[in-house]
């Protein structure tokens, strides 16, 4: 399968994507633990079916010290006992923030309160922007069928 578009072959898209990806790198500087960021990015990408991002964030999480067991259980985090309350709150926020149409009103107050219990305003801001960013990147990749899943090497985009 080949990509429908070559973003970097387009002057307009190439410039926009370059800046867009710089936004993604800025999250690494937030006080949200890197492993939590990667779990959130992975869960959003699983929901959206973005193989490129699933590959990337699985490998980045492993490079940041995440265990294989936890990575395998992200898709079933509700039933898994290996995630902290804070991580569970972030994953639930990620799910409701990704499934806006399914959540009839967006992110519910209970989900927001659970996240706010574990993350301060700066961290919540970072999580909300990360969730939105990942949804955008997933859509850019899925719409154009970016085919590079499996080839990513941890640290390649950082």
From TrEMBL:
Record Gene3D superfamilies: AhpD-like
Stretch forming the signal peptide: none
Domain (Carboxymuconolactone decarboxylase-like): residue spans on this chain: 26-96
Highest taxon in the source lineage: Bacteria
Pfam families: CMD
Spans through the membrane: none
GO molecular function: peroxiredoxin activity
Entry-linked InterPro entries: AhpD-like, AhpD_core, CMD-like
Protein name in UniProt: Alkylhydroperoxidase
Biological source species: Streptomyces mangrovisoli
Organism lineage string: Bacteria, Bacillati, Actinomycetota, Actinomycetes, Kitasatosporales
């Amino acid at each position: 399968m080949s990509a429908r578009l070559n973003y970097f072959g387009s002057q307009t898209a190439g410039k926009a994507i370059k800046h867009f990806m710089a936004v993604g790198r800025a999250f690494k500087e937030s006080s949200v633990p890197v492993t939590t960021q990667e779990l959130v990015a992975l869960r959003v990408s699983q929901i959206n079916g973005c193989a490129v991002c699933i590959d990337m964030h699985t490998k980045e999480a492993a490079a940041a010290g995440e265990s294989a067991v936890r990575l395998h259980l992200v898709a079933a985090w509700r039933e898994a006992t290996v995630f902290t309350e804070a991580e569970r709150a972030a994953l639930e926020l990620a799910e409701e923030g990704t499934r806006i149409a399914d959540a009839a009103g967006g992110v519910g107050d209970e989900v927001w309160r659970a996240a706010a219990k574990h993350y301060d305003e700066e961290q919540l801001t970072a999580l909300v922007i990360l969730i939105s960013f990942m949804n955008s990147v997933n859509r850019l990749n899925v719409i154009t069928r970016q085919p590079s899943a499996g080839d990513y090497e941890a640290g390649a985009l950082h």
